[in-house]
Amino acid sequence: MLTDVIEFRIDRHSGVSTYMQIVHQVEQAMRLGLLAPGDRLPSAREVVDATAVNPNTVLKAYRELEREGLVEGRRGLGTFVTKSLASEATAGDDAPLRKELARWMSLAREGGLVVEDVDALYSAVREEHYPVEERS
Amino acid sequence: MIPLSADSVGKRYRSHWAVRDCTFALPEGKVIALVGPNGAGKSTLLRMAAGLVRPTAGELEVFGTPVRGGTHPDVSFLAQNRPLYSDLTVRETVRVAAAMNDRWSAERVQEVLGLQAGVDHGAKIRTLSAGTRTQVAIALALGRLPRLLLLDEPLSDLDPLARDETLRIIMAEVADRGTTVVMSSHLLADLREVCDHMLLVDEGRVQVDGDIEEVLARHRILVGPAADESAVAGTLVSATRTQRQATLLLKDSGPAPQGWTDAEPDLESLVMGYLRASRARSSAPRG
């Protein structure tokens, strides 16, 4: 069985709780198609070995993902992804929108923009198209 | 089963109450942060739970059994002064500890010592750094195969690498054996990432007791015009005020009135708010 499907990166200074970081990272991996239905999430013990976080926090994050209907805990076996969040638009390196964004970003880089410029532009355009009050 | 509970526990040294009227019941299998400033009563509380100090008032129970004159077999206690015989080597220390404990896993001790990079088994205890002594003492504590692990300032003298090793060992213990862990520290930053429950003590009393996320979710910080404070609903924990502006820490607050901003506190500001409140109470003239 593959135990290293994904690895969590816990940023202890981000101000975001460890539990939310794990939830977000699983969701993001699912959107990008890195996690697909049938994949097993790392066990609490595996996460502890990799990151020294509290195993209860990992289990709590998995319960939240279960409540959202994205994963399922199977007794004695582990926690498995049951749903796909990936679509043709988001999964894989050759998804059309991703390729377009990659093209845009290489233009930005060639144009001498630094990462803060890129982030500022991206968030400004995102705000225009996805106003906060419309987000679910 | 409740691993540790206290019912109106107090401890008086001469005329000074180090701990007074403490009542709580800790949840099983959790990692509990026992936080509070120096002198708050944390060590006294842990020593009473370990059966080394007898309460002046009230009673503690460990797994449903009253604590009386000794450490419960399911409890391991890491004392703050890490009492080890300074003339023995690490290897001899492990052998002595094995002889002193009825339930003992030599395998577990070796496993833990093996995970700690800096420990030389042939070295005498007195030649070890404070951090290495702590690591040896933690290995011995785990050798008792505890169901409740009481750690008094376990991280205080560890360098960053040893700190990471030690947290990993303790968290693996929780994952593998479901051990309940109580860790004290006067530094909140040490514990916030690895604990799911908090017991905040100050002036010998329990100030906050609960699941950290739940405690945070019940509190709000409201900032608004000082003249308009009466419009705010909820239990006021503490406040800081300038001439015009008031910053209020509230428990179970209502919606923020117009003109006030409203945010969930982070753990630091919550703890600071409660400590400020307990200091204000203890310095107020008693009527």
TrEMBL record, chain A:
MF GO annotations: DNA binding; DNA-binding transcription factor activity
Keywords assigned by UniProt, alphabetized: DNA-binding, Transcription, Transcription regulation
SUPFAM superfamilies membership: Winged helix' DNA-binding domain
Pfam families xrefs: GntR
InterPro entries per record: Tscrpt_reg_HTH_GntR, WH-like_DNA-bd_sf, WH_DNA-bd_sf
Residue ranges of domain HTH gntR-type in the record: 16-84
CDD domains registered for this protein in UniProt: WHTH_GntR
SMART domains linked to this entry: HTH_GNTR
Entry-linked PANTHER family: GNTR-FAMILY TRANSCRIPTIONAL REGULATOR (PTHR38445:SF7), HTH-TYPE TRANSCRIPTIONAL REPRESSOR YTRA (PTHR38445)
Protein name: GntR family transcriptional regulator
Species of the source: Lentzea waywayandensis
Species classification: Bacteria, Bacillati, Actinomycetota, Actinomycetes, Pseudonocardiales
Automatic annotation (TrEMBL), chain B:
Location of the ABC transporter domain: 4-228
GO MF terms, alphabetically ordered: ATP binding; ATP hydrolysis activity
Keyword ATP-binding recorded: yes
Keywords: ATP-binding, Nucleotide-binding, Transport
Protein name (record): ABC-2 type transport system ATP-binding protein
Provenance organism: Lentzea waywayandensis
